[in-house]
Amino acid sequence: MQTISVKCKLQVPVELRQEIDRTLRGFADACNQIYEVATAENCWNTTKLHHLVYKAVRASTGLKANHVCQAIRRVIGNVKAVKQVHKFRPTSINLDIRTFQYIEELQTVGITLMCGRVKFKLSIGNYQLALLKGQNPTAATLNKTKQGDYYINICVYLPTEPTGRTPKVIGVDLGRRDIATTSTGKAWNGKQIQNVRDRYSKVRANIQRKRTRSARRLTRRLSGRESRFQKWLNHNISKQLVREAKQFNAALAFEDLTNIRESLNQKPRSKTERRRTNNWAFYQLRMFTQYKANIAGVPIVFVPPAYTSQTCSRCYHFHPVKGKSYRNGKIFKCGHCGFEHDADINAANVIAALGASVISPESPGMTCQLESQLSLFPTSQICG
Questions:
Q1: How close are the terminal C-alpha atoms of the chain, in Å?
Q2: What angle do CA 252, 258, 263 make, to 5 degrees?
Q3: 180-202: b or e for each residue (b if 16 or more CB lie within 10 Å)?
Q4: Which uninterrupted H or E stretch holds 308?
Q5: Are the C-beta atoms of 337 and 312 separated by less than 8 Å?
Q6: Which residues pair with 6 in a beta bridge?
Q7: pLDDT digits 0-9 by tens, 189-246
Q8: What is the value of pTM for the model shown?
């Protein structure tokens, strides 16, 4: 089963907005109190932390019992997910089966607030209706946007097709010049995308010089637009990647780019180049592709990124001199066998070959220099 989140807009009467806001403030206050105690006591175990904070937090905030339990889980989850936890803001609250109910016949949800259980109508379209049909969700998240609208993200479980084993692998090379390039020759050019991002950056820089309240508000709006554009594009690319893999009955192979930003930022680069590299969400594209592939039954593997763009996809040799490469911009010309090809497609072919050696270890696999480089990586880093 694959878990996905269905975003639904709530129809909230004016008189109930204050009750939702009061509950959100109470939940944020509870999270901040819990985090202070957990930090002071150095306690990050859910059960032990519950005994330390439950009664005091409930008495000071007036929250329901299950809201406090969810606040403890929120704090523990955030600490595990990020390096530094900032102050919790009253923008969302976690709900479980005791504080949330979805009623399909009426298209309403019941949410427990500090004043008690309240029902809200959903304002959704056919896409959300299809995902929620026949579901009995037990978890959700209530959110308040910057514009003052209320949404509920309902967790549903979708059946996934068995992945099975396939000898076919489509390699995917991620980059900035081309956002994604496949070993089948399909590519998503990043020039127009880069122009859009540069325009947003320029407008944002001009606005920030004014240092007024309206300028800060406009900056947040621009940031939201850019984020939505990025998410829309990554959804489109991931959808087409999974569709192509399903069509060819193939697996998808990606480079494991974990911590790639930290390694790139250590190199001397201009401020513009640093912004362009750090601004694109490759991890988001990977996550979108993963959950779509799980639903479609498409296997995904991750391979080490070392030397994939410098290796010849025909003879698997790379330049013998450290720091030098046969690649020059968009052209790759092997100095060993003379093979010449598009550099990104060549890299995608190398990634596909590495992915095939992971999926079918009993096959002859790859030879020459790259195989010795692959053997340097633990199996846990190679398999997805």
A1: 17
A2: 130
A3: bbbbbeebbebeebbeebeebbe
A4: none
A5: yes
A6: 154
A7: 777 777 777 777 777 677 666 666 666 666 666 666 777 888 888 899 999 999 999 9
A8: 0.70
Q: What is the mean pLDDT of residues 354-369?
A: 66
Domain boundaries, the chain: 2-158, 169-189+228-382
